[in-house]
């Protein structure tokens, strides 16, 4: 009961932070108020939508419970009005974003195991939950997803989701799975931000 | 019986007009015949597909009934051949498009309520039905969705879908829900076209 | 039993070849290792995902069986390391790609008929299975899908899928349906590559 309350609170916090990142991209692309709200909603909810549609759990929880829609809308409106201030706070937002990443990869993996997936696909779905919203944001904003461009972002999510998926699959306690997977993802991602760790690039000239 | 016949006719008319707008974009991007047909189908059917996948009503009605596929294909072929004429008729097409918008937001909201959604998510799904095809068209054509660029397009659809969703949810007669929601969306959109109403843009310089 | 083993082997071979084409695009766009792997997976599995989500067969087979995930990951890693060599082999890859196209259109159509679709929508779903991965690849790589640009690629897939759909729908033997549809698609596509057949473009200047 208490733990479930905490999970919902964390979930909403993750959606909120992701939605702000989507709205900031929209403001920089000079989209109108509606574009800002759509990018906020897509970034905050898109990863979960994609997971739920793929594992066949429809309608997604965020459509069944209207409060999930209010959070990204509020984040979008806040960003629309206060974007000069929020834009400057981006380093802090990146830290919150890492928390969102950690939470989404863990809940995504757990929900996928509960839907009957085995650990490896469930880990992939956990990563998809964590990075899908940002990828959809970039597609709609007309740019190649930033997570393909060297930043170490998806690998921590996959690792955290993998641990959570294995522990959940073998009936580990939910809290332990969430804590172990989430911590790994969070610490890895924060260190990657701090030390500018990057993913490897292909070597040598690409043939045309 | 009669009313259902009218609804199907309206639905096909909306698909037809949306498909023409998709095919015109494809012609301007110099895509080949196949690209024209795909953009016609995606624009005409995409919003309903997205809604049906999200609310879990699969396969979508337009896949179960093959006649729904013929309409956008016919619209695409017509546009492929007669695009110089159709392109000049675009102001008139915008008016028909407003009818399509009004119809799709209303039927999308009603189907979502029937699938078990509460009014707020159902209103959002109604809007998604009305604008999703155009967004998918713009993604495939390689441009940021035009509805993010200031034109007042989605707000009337959301308003109309909201009214239809609330009336359907509280067991109002289907015809009344469709008429009230559809009229609001249609009139608002037509006035917005006429008076060049735009959605607000963010103020101040965006931080980089 | 034996025929089913062959089908799985063909399916995996098709995924492998499609995944290499996705990874090569990613290398050319200078994406990082993660981007290469994602484009490999999306190109190899995306068409089947899209079909399964639309016909309501979730989770997709490639999520239920983790071996389906290993094949595109392996193809992506190979391409990441050996892309200068693989890039030069592209003419050969196009021939393998034609085999993948033929296989995917046939299996996609058959699965759609089994899910209850009638022949015309099933044929369209077969084509979607065959071309959907490549379209998603191009969207994520930030370019208009190459199949809209004149190459004769989707039409053979639609024709092959149509034959397979009709034969499966009228209870023809699975092997015959697969062979007839697949052969038509394969031969047509190979001749189109050889003779540079293109799809027709719109005539006359497009209105602005």
TrEMBL record, chains A, B, C:
Localization (cell): Cell membrane
Bilayer topology annotation: Multi-pass membrane protein
Domain Glycine transporter: 9-83, 95-167
Superkingdom assignment: Bacteria
Keywords carried by this UniProt record: Cell membrane, Membrane, Transmembrane, Transmembrane helix
Gene Ontology CC terms: plasma membrane
Main location: membrane
Membrane-traversing stretches: 6-27, 34-54, 66-85, 92-110, 122-140, 152-170, 176-193
Family from the record: Belongs to the UPF0126 family.
Protein name: Trimeric intracellular cation channel family protein
Protein's organism: Nocardioides guangzhouensis
């Amino acid at each position: 009961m208490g733990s479930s309350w905490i999970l919902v609170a964390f979930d909403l916090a993750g959606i909120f932070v992701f939605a702000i990142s989507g709205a900031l991209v929209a403001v920089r692309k000079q989209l109108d108020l509606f574009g800002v709200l759509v990018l906020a909603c897509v970034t905050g909810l898109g990863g979960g939508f994609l997971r739920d549609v793929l594992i066949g759990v429809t309608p997604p929880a965020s459509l069944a419970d209207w409060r999930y829609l209010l959070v990204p809308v509020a984040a979008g409106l806040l960003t629309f009005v206060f974007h000069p201030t929020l834009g400057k706070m981006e380093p802090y937002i990146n830290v919150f974003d890492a928390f969102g990443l950690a939470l989404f990869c863990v809940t995504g993996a757990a929900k996928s195991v509960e839907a009957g997936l085995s650990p490896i696909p469930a880990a992939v779905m956990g990563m998809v939950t964590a990075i899908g919203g940002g990828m959809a944001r970039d597609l709609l904003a007309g740019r190649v997803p930033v997570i393909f461009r060297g930043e170490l972002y998806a690998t921590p999510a996959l690792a955290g989701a993998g641990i959570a998926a294995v522990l959940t699959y073998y009936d580990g306690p939910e809290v332990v799975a969430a804590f172990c997977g989430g911590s790994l993802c969070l610490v890895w991602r924060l260190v990657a931000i701090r030390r500018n760790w990057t993913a490897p690039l292909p070597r040598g000239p690409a043939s045309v």
